[in-house]
Amino acid sequence: MNPVSQRLLSQQLICQQFTAPHEVVEWMGAMQAQEYRMMRWAVEMRTRKPSARAFERAYNNGEIVRGHLFRTTWQLVAGEDWYWMLELCRANALRGLDGWMKSNGISIPRTEQDSVQQIFSDHLERERIALKSDFAAALADKGITMDEHRLSYHIRLAEYSGLLCSGDLLPLKHSYALVREKLPLNKELAKEEAMALLSCKYFRSHGPATLEDFVWWSGLNISDCRRGMEAIRSELLEERWHGLHLWHCGDCRTRGFRSGTVTLLPSYDEYLIGYKSRHIALHPDHQPHAHNSRGIFWPVILLDGQVIGNWAAAGSAAGTAAGVRTIQTDIFHPGALPDGTALQAEIDRYTWFCKK
Questions:
Q1: What is the mean pLDDT of residues 62-89?
Q2: Residue 208 CA from chain centroid, whole number
Q3: Strand 262-265's sheet: what is its strand order?
Q4: What global pTM score does this model have?
Q5: Which residue from 134, 153, 335, 350 lies 20 to 30 Å from 95 (Cα-Cα)?
Q6: Contact 332, 286 (CB under 8 A)
Q7: Burial code of 243-271, b = ≥16 C-beta within 10 A, e = fewer?
Q8: CB of 247 within 8 A of CB of 238?
Q9: What is the pLDDT of residue 315?
Q10: What percent of the chain has pLDDT over 70?
Q11: Interhelix angle 82-103/191-206, nearest 10 degrees
Q12: How confident is the model at residue 318 (pLDDT cuts 50, 70, 90)?
């Protein structure tokens, strides 16, 4: 077993199978989208012909949605998965949000939630999309003022109540829309069915991975994750590798890896953040180059799936269709890239994506 090459294939980082960004997001289940600009490359680099405009169309059409779901962090999911995923993670998300509010000395009564969400809804029925500042202005028109923290919590509560989701893709700022206007209503899934589907999505796109990786990625309890895996047990294979119990789908791809492959991985990418333990792709000595102890992740360069350097896109709207002036690289693994041809080819792929 070579877990690195299998993950590269499962995660669509090499030998990409998909042409549309929606297909990628649906395959991956949920993709970390902390960095608003770089999330576009995270999706499109997994397609055969990366295109910033293709991502924008899918996002604006509701084929791809951004919101706070698993681990109460920003993620992209397929539009048709939004309802059942929100239902699956809502209880955990609200507990986490309540803890954050208490730590900041904030309490929001239900009556206040209802009145604020009605103002949000009324504003979006008139304007279709809104920025956070637009919500603040709409509240002020009704004589309601609040600080940035409280407004942020109200927006998050409106997400978890099923009122708000992402609006149109703007260059630098996240916008909001009404779920009922943006997404078609889908049938609900029973919890057991939802856990089975989530397990399938995770292990087909992230495998080989451990149970602990799945628990970390989903933010759900270990009992539910075990039940989800058991529901698809006939589709999973377990293998031992260096003391780890790794699971992957039985029909996963194992061929297609070519040595010398260079990848410009965006910050917060699933290839690293999608696992509790990252040592398979990230040597402990190189960890400070990839992320810090506070959970901040930086763009990294991969060689054959291993982290060897950092990169940055310089430009006023780096990572968007507006284009990029230069790509700065820093290879901290001595002698890792004696020939810069593969790195330049990947840089060219990124700059092409920005223009298309």
A1: 96
A2: 19
A3: 262-265, 300-303, 306-314, 326-331
A4: 0.95
A5: 134
A6: yes
A7: ebebbbbeebbeeebeeebbbbbbbbbbb
A8: yes
A9: 64
A10: 97
A11: 90
A12: very low
Whether 269 contacts 30, CB under 8 Å: no
Q: Are 174 and 166 in contact (CB under 8 A)?
A: yes
Q: Which of 76, 68, 181 is nearest to 123 (CA)?
A: 181
Evaluated on CA atoms 130, 132, 134, 137, the torsion sign reads: positive
pLDDT, position 316:
46
Length of the chain: 356
Tokens in use for 177?
């829309």
